[in-house]
Design a protein that fits this description.
The chain contains six helices and seven strands; from the N terminus they run H-H-H-E-E-E-E-E-E-H-H-E-H. It has helices spanning about 1-20, 30-35, 40-50, 120-125, 130-135, 150-155; strands spanning about 55-60, 65-75, 80-85, 90-95, 100, 110-120, 135. Strands 1, 2, 3, 4, 5, 6 and 7 form a seven-stranded antiparallel β-sheet that branches.
Length: about 160
């Protein structure tokens, strides 16, 4: 009987050794897939925007994803305004970062400035034209995205700055 118990113990040890030495393969999701499916930077960006609404237009890029627009001097009946063209519409940039549509009197001239408009991720991701996903003042953006790292996770891009163009 003792030899039977001993043989069982030996067999058990062999099974445990074999199980312990077998290779184990773990499959981990890619960073982009994980970012797109979990509570991610898009949610954090929306939460941050609810606390600190980003300006529609700035004269320098900041921590929000932006679209760059070349600046122009636009002649108006009352004088010159500074602004940009987006999708065929001319806009004057107001001191508070909002914009006003204007009709140029003559041909606008470059002023050497660049304006940075906020990007609405929902409109961008649905494939809308730049004139629709570039937010240039007014009511507010539903889904601004903060930071190139977050943008890259969501879109699969490889941007190194917060400007998408």
């Amino acid at each position: 009987m003792a030899s039977t118990d001993s043989e069982k113990n030996i067999k058990r040890r062999r099974i445990l050794k074999a199980a312990a030495s077998a290779p184990v393969v773990f499959t981990l999701p890619t960073g982009a897939a994980l970012a797109a499916t979990s509570l991610t930077c898009a949610d954090k960006s929306a939460e941050r925007a609810s606390l600190e609404l980003p300006a529609g237009v700035t004269s320098a890029p900041d921590s929000w994803m932006r679209f760059s627009l070349p600046g122009f001097r636009i002649n108006q009946p009352g004088g010159q305004v500074q602004g940009f063209n987006l999708g065929g519409t001319w806009y004057a940039v107001n001191a508070d970062g909002t914009v006003t549509p204007v009709t140029p009197n003559g041909t606008p001239q470059s002023n050497g400035l660049t304006y940075y408009a906020l990007v609405d991720y929902d409109a961008y991701s649905s494939g809308q034209a730049a004139s629709m996903y570039v937010y240039h003042g007014g009511t507010g953006v539903v889904s601004p995205i903060a930071g190139a790292s977050c943008w890259n996770s969501l879109t699969g891009s490889a941007l190194s700055s917060n400007v998408i163009n």
